[in-house]
Amino acid sequence: MPFDAAPPPKYTLYRQQHTLGGEVRLSGIGVHSAAAVEIVIAPAAIDHGIVFVRSDLNKKIPADFRAVSATQFCTVLKSDGAEISTVEHVMAALRGLGIDNALISVNGPEVPILDGSAEPFITAIDAVGVVEQKAQRKVLRVLREVKAQNGNAWASIAPAPASEFEFQIDYPGTAIGTQRFEVRLINGNFRHDIAAARTFGLRSDVDKLRAAGLARGGSLDNAIVVDGDEILNDGGLRFDDEFVRHKVLDAIGDLYLAGAPILGRYQGHRAGHTLNNQLLHALFADERNYAVETMANIAA
């Protein structure tokens, strides 16, 4: 159900644009290629937005839903013949910390999977801080509900006074089961409610992916693996409902490819990267669905 109360003062969204206080570097492996890769997230100027750079190819790739080229196992961006995959976790971290402008350099085709969550990005950015810039922040206000559907899986976004996310998953006969989670992004709660939730998969699916030459970098160090009613990770779960929280994390990252924070209520039911991207295409297909505003027009 939608939140009944209006968002409290300062709920929010910074009123000004923000960037990082300094450059951060993280190294790891690609979850599909298992190749060593380094990511550098650097400050960027006002109205720069979020832009990826394949530093090994010297090619820029905009963080834009229209540049999405694949969504089967992760979100992949492609521009000028260059691709960068698994962008959703770092995009979620930037959205969660309120960063509008950043240049993200990666020296390979994948963002490192790290621990499978957004928490390592949050920790690294916290070390350099987030700084305010002298320009109004832009937001995307949803004016009419739109929906993307494939069978019994669907995703929708509808008008709301804040950025709200609700998700439900259903994995019968497994330790995951049926889970539902909803959150309003408010006062930095992404940090403690969502960021640490890790990606996950069924043991049978992992075996199939590896047989197909994928998920070669996947391990219990960067994903939760479920085998029937058993969780194979020694440390167990970080949240009782970590699985559905990670689906919300993915949705936050995918929707930030709209180019600005969205004021609207997202709902997902058994959805994934494909439906999230289709949802953005549906939203932007008709200018009556949305309005781009500055924070000067948003009530404090």
In terms of per-residue confidence, which ranges show pLDDT below 50 for 5 or more consecutive residues? 1-11
Work out the radius of gyration.
Answer: 18 Å
The CATH topology turns out to be lpxc deacetylase, domain 1
Sheet with the most strands, sense and barrel status: 7 strands, mixed
Could you tell me the number of beta strands? 20
- Structure classification: alpha+beta
CATH class: Alpha Beta
What is the 3D shape?
Answer: globular
Helix content range of the residues, please?
10-25%
Q: Please name the CATH architecture.
A: 2-Layer Sandwich
Average pLDDT value?
A: 92
Corresponding CATH superfamily: lpxc deacetylase, domain 2
CA(first)-CA(last) distance: 24 Å
Topology:
Blueprint lengths: L15 E5 L3 E6 L6 E8 L6 E5 L4 E4 L5 E3 L5 E4 L2 E4 L2 H10 L4 E5 L12 H10 L1 E7 L1 E5 L3 E5 L2 E6 L4 E9 L5 E8 L5 H4 L6 E3 H9 L12 E4 L2 E2 L10 H14 L6 E8 L3 H12 L5 E5 L6
Parallel strand pairs: 4-9, 11-19, 14-19, 16-17
Antiparallel strand pairs: 1-10, 2-3, 3-9, 4-5, 6-7, 7-8, 11-20, 12-13, 13-19, 14-15, 17-18
